[in-house]
Specification:
Length: 195
C-alpha cells in the first residue's frame, strides 16, 4: 500500500521547490536595464561547436551602429565573423570585454571581423562602455531586440553570448555566457583554418 501525502505537506513541498528555483534564478540572473525586472539567465561560458554539415546560416542582420553608421553582416562574406551580444548593464560583459578586444586585435589582419550587438541598452551608456573598455570594433545598436531575435536558429540565450560565423556566414560556434581569451582564441583560429 503506497503512503498518502497530505495536502498540507504537498503544498509545503511545492512552496520549497518554488523558493529553491527562485533562489537559483536570483543568483544566476543579471538585472536588466535600469534595474528592471527584465532579467537574463547567465550562461556558464561553455562553447558549443557545430559541425559544418549541421550549421545554419546567420540571419540578414543589419542596422545602425553606435557611431550612427550602417552595418550589415553580409558585408563580411568570406571572413570569419565573431558576433558578441552585450549590454553595458551586464557585469559579465564588462569582464569579457578585454578578452574580446585582444582576440580582435590579434586576428583582424587574418580575415576575422568582430561585431558587437548592443541589446536592450541606452546608446550613451553603450558608448561609455566602449570608451571605458577601449572596444574598437563596431557594434549594432539593437535597442528593440530585433537583431538578437533574428538569430532564432542558434539563439543567443543569455547576455553575453558570442557566436563565431564561418566564411560562408554560418554559425559555427556558440558561447553562452562570458568568454575568455583562452577559450575564444583557439575557437576563432580553428574556424579560420577551415577551407
Amino acid at each position: 500500500m503506497s503512503p498518502r501525502v497530505s495536502p498540507v505537506r504537498a503544498v509545503a513541498v511545492f512552496a520549497a521547490a518554488c523558493a529553491l528555483l527562485a533562489g537559483c534564478a536570483g543568483t544566476d540572473a543579471a538585472q536588466g536595464p535600469g534595474g528592471s525586472e527584465n532579467r537574463f539567465i547567465a550562461g556558464d561560458g561553455s562553447a558549443q561547436e557545430i559541425k559544418p554539415a549541421d550549421r545554419k546560416a546567420a540571419p540578414r542582420a543589419e542596422g545602425a551602429t553606435l557611431d550612427d553608421k550602417t552595418l550589415a553582416l553580409s558585408e563580411f562574406k568570406g571572413k570569419v565573423v565573431v558576433v558578441n551580444f552585450w549590454a553595458s548593464w551586464c557585469r559579465p560583459c564588462r569582464g569579457e570585454a578585454p578578452s574580446l578586444e585582444q582576440v580582435h586585435n590579434e586576428t583582424k589582419d587574418k580575415g576575422v571581423q568582430f561585431v558587437g550587438v548592443v541589446f536592450k541598452d541606452g546608446k550613451e551608456n553603450a558608448r561609455a562602455f566602449e570608451r571605458r573598455f577601449k572596444v574598437t570594433y563596431p557594434s549594432l545598436f539593437d535597442a528593440d531586440g530585433r537583431t538578437t531575435l533574428a538569430f532564432r536558429d542558434v539563439p543567443p540565450n543569455a547576455i553575453p553570448t558570442t557566436l563565431v560565423l564561418d566564411r560562408q556566414g554560418r554559425v559555427a560556434v556558440r558561447i553562452i555566457g562570458a568568454t575568455t581569451y583562452s577559450r575564444l582564441s583557439p575557437l576563432v583560429d580553428k574556424i579560420l583554418a577551415e577551407r
